[in-house]
Amino acid sequence: MLRFSRNLSSSMKRFLLLLILCSAVRAEDAGLLLQLGLGDKEATEWDGSLKVSAGKVVEITGWRFERQDKVVGTEGWKAGTRAAAVQGRANNPKKLGMAKRAQQNLGPIQENGVFVRLQGVTTDSVVEVTTTQGNFSFKLADVKYGDPLELLDGRAAAVRTAVTGKRLSPERTEDDYPAIALGKKNKVYVTYQSFTPGIDRDERAKAWTEDPGDLSFLAKPAGGDQLWLQLREANKFSDAIAVTGTGCDIYKSAVAEDGKGTLWVVWSERKDGQFSIFARGYAEGKLGEPLKLSEGAGNNLSPVAVTDATGHVWAAWQGAEGTSFAIKAKHQTDAGWSETGKVSSGTGDCWQPSIAA
Question: Do the Cβ atoms of 328 and 343 come closer than 8 Å?
Fold first, then answer.
């Protein structure tokens, strides 16, 4: 039994009781993966919807969705299981017959599913799922990380996942190679590159049941890459900030904050026929001018970055030396940036550096 001192006022007792109750049943965000169609022997429809008591559904996204699958609002979906196609090579004339046979040889039925982001839930929250193959429910406390909870006689399962949070790139571009860093005052920095295709992904994935006739629409040129930066502070992500212009050719980026609070975005971009390493500072809401960190001829790719104990940013990458690649590095000094140094030794290729301090 809970007992308070007689010296406490009734209002203070109510306040303390409220704190105890809030700590015992704390609302939070939660992520789930619902797997549907486990053990299906043939393609099966799994359209459905989901709701949660003591909380709300914030977002649903597809897991193994293909062109006919889609999310309906924030609580429903239209999706099904299907046979996984076995891919075969068709670019070798000698193996063309093998490729055709492989395309006709469909693999096993592949399960489908949805990722779900819940908000304001507690361990006592109950999730109710309705599907065309049957309904089921479960208590959130019964779902564990990495340990699927079998449901609907084993035909479905639920697994806890990391909370998906905000989708940072909602556009119809192809977004790749994110990099992330933690700065002062719990700021979080994220960079990523986006590629604008000539033809929308749905158009590219569309199956033709008859001769389309005019194929000129396939000649629409691609828009190229663009590098973006987003920062999170006060529990909120900013709008995306364009680090480069459009129409670029970019291969990976990195990000780190120096001791003075300036964020440095480092990336590899092809200009004048070769990839070079560039850096750009961001401070007080403004981007500085781009700096070229790499020197000499040959391609420089796959940059990484970190801040050392003195507050100086280090950048490393793989750079061409003659007919092979070496790992190179450069760091901030009180006067700017150091000379480029070679980290790797030997005569063989050295690729894909990682860095830590």
Answer: yes
116 forms beta bridges with 32, 60
CA dist., res. 124 & res. 54, Å (int): 8
DSSP string covering 186-238, please?
G-EEEEEEEEE-SS-HHHHHPPPSS-----GGGGPPP-EEEEEEEEEETTEEP
SS3 3: coil
Cα 238 to Cα 255: distance, rounded to the nearest angstrom: 16
CB atoms within 10 A of CB 81: 23
Q: In whole angstroms, what is the distance from residue 246 CA to residue 16 CA?
A: 56
Question: What's the pTM?
Answer: 0.68
| Digit-coded pLDDT (tens) for 177-218 | 999 999 998 899 999 999 999 888 777 777 778 888 888 888
Buried b (16+ CB within 10 A) or exposed e, 289-305: eeeebbeeebbbbbbbb
Q: Tokens in use for 306? A: 């970190």
